[in-house]
Amino acid sequence: MPPHRSGAARPARARRDDGRVLAAVADGDAAALTALYERYAGPLFAFLYRLAGDRGTAEEILQDTLLAVWRSAGTYRGRSSVSTWLFGVARRQAHNRLRGVPPPVAAEPDDGADPLPGPEELAVGQERVRATLARLPLAQREVVVLAFLGDLSHREIAEVLEIPVGTVKSRLHHARATLREYADERTS
């Protein structure tokens, strides 16, 4: 089964199955941990990569996350979806690893590009997005990544970040304003 993008987008049966799989992890079932990994590695890695700005660091944090899930699966109480709980674990692991680490600085690409973008230009565009996200304060970057790349609802983001829904909305509003400022800087 390919990784999904959001707990909300998955059918209720699949979400219940996630709960059973996590309960099996709590009972020490390594195959269940592998099943969770197969379902959620993609979205969790994308989230962690956007927070860390570095593939290697994101991979290390993902491994830290799986270890934390293995150790703490028994603490899951079902108050949120398993996917939301997993994003919360990943976020805590990222904060532990990234505390005090400045965001990565991206090199500025050459602006003499062909009007029709090829693979190199598309890669540069992705690098610009990554570099722009890295300029956001971590609190705003988390919300943007969870909302637009993790496809989580405001409520789910609030659960992952352990903040009120209003704070999620406020951070998204400020992040959009900051991103607009960055975009204006690049066009002027």
From TrEMBL:
- Ranges for domain RNA polymerase sigma-70 region come to 36-99
Q: Which UniProt keywords apply?
A: DNA-binding, Sigma factor, Transcription, Transcription regulation
Nucleotide-binding as UniProt keyword: no
Sections of the chain in a coiled coil = none
Tell me the Gene3D superfamilies matching this sequence: 1.10.1740.10, Winged helix-like DNA-binding domain superfamily/Winged helix DNA-binding domain (1.10.10.10)
* Pfam families, A to Z: Sigma70_r2, Sigma70_r4_2
- Domain RNA polymerase sigma factor 70 region 4 type, residue spans: 127-179
The family note in this entry says: Belongs to the sigma-70 factor family. ECF subfamily.
List the NCBIfam families hit by this protein, alphabetically: sigma70-ECF (TIGR02937)
Q: This chain belongs to which protein, by name?
A: RNA polymerase sigma factor
Q: What is the lineage of its organism?
A: Bacteria, Bacillati, Actinomycetota, Actinomycetes, Streptosporangiales
